[in-house]
C-alpha cells in the first residue's frame, strides 16, 4: 500500500497494443500496395507497380528532357519511408513485448513480430539500392549516384531507429508516413497525364496506389494517437 504523501512510481509510457498493431497492419497494407499495380493499361497489357514505375519513367521523353519533374526517387521515396517505418515498428514491438529497457537487449529485437519487421525493413532498404549494373559499368553510375546516397542514408536510418527515444517515435512515424504518402500521391498524379499521351489512351489507376495511400494514412493516424496519449500521460504525471 502506498503511504500518504509518498510519491507514486509511474512506469514509462509504452505504446498501446491496439495502436501498435494498427500501425503494423497499415504498414503491411502499404507494402503490399507498393508492389501491386499503380497504373494499368488493358490495351497494352501493362501493369506497373510503384517499383516498376521508378525505372519506367526514365524512358519517358518528358523525364529525359527535364520537362517532367520526376525521377526514380519520386517513386522510391514511399518504399524508403516504409523501410524506416518498419524499423521503428520493430523497436516499438520489442519494447511493448516486455523486453528490457536497459543495456544492449533494448536494441536487439527477438520477438517474431519485431524480427519480421526488421527483416522487411532491410529488404525494402536493399530494394532502394541501385541495380548491379550501376556498380559494374561506370557509364550508368552518374544516373544512380543520388539513389545510392539515399539508400545509404536509409540503411543508416534503420540502425538509428533502434535508438530513438520513446517520445520521438510517434512524431517520426507521422513524418515518414506523410512524406511517403504525399510523395507517392504527387508522383503518380504528375505522371498520369504524360503516361496517357504515350499510348494515346488513358491509364487506369490501380488498387496498389490507393492501398499505399490508405495504409500510410493509417500509420499517420496511429502515430497521432500515440502522440496524443503520450502528451496526456505526461500532463497527468506532472499533475
Textual characterization of the structure:
- It is a single chain.
- The protein is mainly alpha-helical and 239 residues long.
- It has one domain.
- The protein is built from 9 helices and 3 strands.
- It has helices at 17-34, 50-56, 61-64, 72-96, 112-128, 132-136, 141-161, 166-198, 207-238; strands spanning 37-41, 46-49, 204-205.
- A hairpin with a 4-residue loop joins strand 1 and strand 2.
- The protein is globular.
- Mean pLDDT is 85; it is low at 1-14.
How many individual helices? 9
Count all strands and give the number.
Answer: 3
Helix amount:
55-70%
Low-confidence stretches: 1-14
Largest sheet: 3 strands, antiparallel
N-to-C order of helices and strands: HEEHHHHHHHEH
Strand order of the largest sheet: 2-1-3
Radius of gyration: 21 Å
The end-to-end distance, rounded to whole angstroms, is: 21 Å
Write a brief caption for the model.
The chain has 239 residues and is mainly alpha-helical.
Write the topology of this structure.
Blueprint: H1 17-34, E1 37-41, E2 46-49, H2 50-56, H3 61-64, H4 72-96, H5 112-128, H6 132-136, H7 141-161, H8 166-198, E3 204-205, H9 207-238
Antiparallel strand pairs: 1-2, 1-3
Helix pairs in contact: 1-4, 1-9, 2-4, 4-5, 4-7, 4-8, 5-7, 8-9
